[in-house]
């Protein structure tokens, strides 16, 4: 084995005139430079593919591909109860929020509204009142605008513009289905006015 090592070191020195340490250092540096430079170019067949982001600190450097944003799906007219299904707990569903009865797909703001996000309490909810009052109280997270003054309504309008600007509108909130309303009102024992 030592004969083998000696032969290699002698051969390196004979042919390159370098000490084995210098030879291996230069080889390693060359490989590093080669890999850095080639990673700056895209091969012709990969030219139109979406970019691959290498996650330096991730478990795999090569499997992390940026997820293309999902096309917003129109949900049409849905009730508050149905809206609650879109609160970010199901990864296969978009995250939706309703402002003044208009439903927006806020999935791109997952950091805000997804599980653990600062504004997760608004996900899957009609949150006009909370936005107008700048409140996080659960009892304010609804669409009841009663008793709001002009300045609060103006704040709500600002929020509405922000949502219109930033997120696609994907539906409209409708009252709960009539059968449920009847069930509720019977439970409440309230008087039903004839139409
Ligand atoms: C201490 C007070 C607050 C601070 C420091 C704060 C800070 C922030 C910051 C830095 C952002 C990110 C802005 C951006 O990148 O576009 C944000 C977003 C947001 N804030 Fe606040 N916030 C506060 C209070 C509130 C309150 C009271 C509400 C409503 C009840 C609220 C609702 C929101 C919403 C809905 C978003 C996300 C908007 C979007 O989807 O782009 N915030 N906030």
From TrEMBL:
User: What's the superkingdom here?
Assistant: Eukaryota
Compartments reported by the entry: Endoplasmic reticulum
Where would I find the Cytochrome b5 heme-binding domain in this sequence? 78-174
**InterPro entries with a match to the protein in the record:** Cyt_B5-like_heme/steroid-bd, Cyt_B5-like_heme/steroid_sf, MAPR/NEUFC/NENF-like
Disordered: annotated segments: 174-195
Where are the annotated coiled coils located? Answer: none
Task: Mark the transmembrane ranges.
Answer: 12-34
One Pfam family matching this protein:
Cyt-b5
Kindly list the GO molecular function terms attached to this UniProt entry.
Answer: metal ion binding; steroid binding
What does the entry list under GO cellular component?
A: endomembrane system; endoplasmic reticulum; membrane
Name the residue ranges with Polar residues bias. Answer: 178-195
Keywords in UniProt for this one? Endoplasmic reticulum, Heme, Iron, Lipid-binding, Membrane, Metal-binding, Steroid-binding, Transmembrane, Transmembrane helix
Membership in a protein family: Belongs to the cytochrome b5 family. MAPR subfamily.
Q: What protein is this chain from?
A: Cytochrome b5-like heme/steroid-binding domain protein
Provenance organism: Medicago truncatula (Barrel medic)
Taxonomy, top ranks, is: Eukaryota, Viridiplantae, Streptophyta, Embryophyta, Tracheophyta
Quote the gene name from the UniProt entry.
11416017
């Amino acid at each position: 084995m030592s004969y083998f090592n000696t032969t290699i070191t002698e051969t390196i020195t004979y042919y390159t005139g370098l000490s084995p340490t210098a030879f291996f250092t230069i080889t390693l540096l060359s490989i590093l430079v080669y890999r850095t430079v080639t990673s700056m170019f895209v091969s012709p067949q990969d030219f139109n593919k979406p970019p691959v982001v290498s996650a330096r600190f991730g478990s795999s450097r090569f499997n992390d591909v940026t997820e293309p944003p999902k096309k917003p799906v129109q949900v049409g007219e849905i009730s508050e109860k149905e809206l609650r299904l879109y609160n970010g707990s199901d990864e296969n569903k978009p995250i939706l929020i309703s402002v003044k009865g208009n439903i927006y797909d806020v999935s791109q703001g997952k950091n805000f509204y997804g599980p653990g996000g600062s504004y997760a309490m608004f996900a899957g909810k009609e949150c006009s009142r909370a936005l107008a009052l700048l409140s996080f109280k659960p009892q304010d997270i609804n669409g009841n605008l009663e008793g709001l003054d002009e300045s609060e309504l103006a704040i709500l309008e600002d929020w509405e513009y922000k949502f219109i600007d930033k997120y696609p509108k994907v539906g409209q909130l409708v009252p709960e289905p009539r059968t449920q309303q009847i069930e509720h009102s019977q439970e409440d024992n309230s008087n039903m006015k004839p139409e």
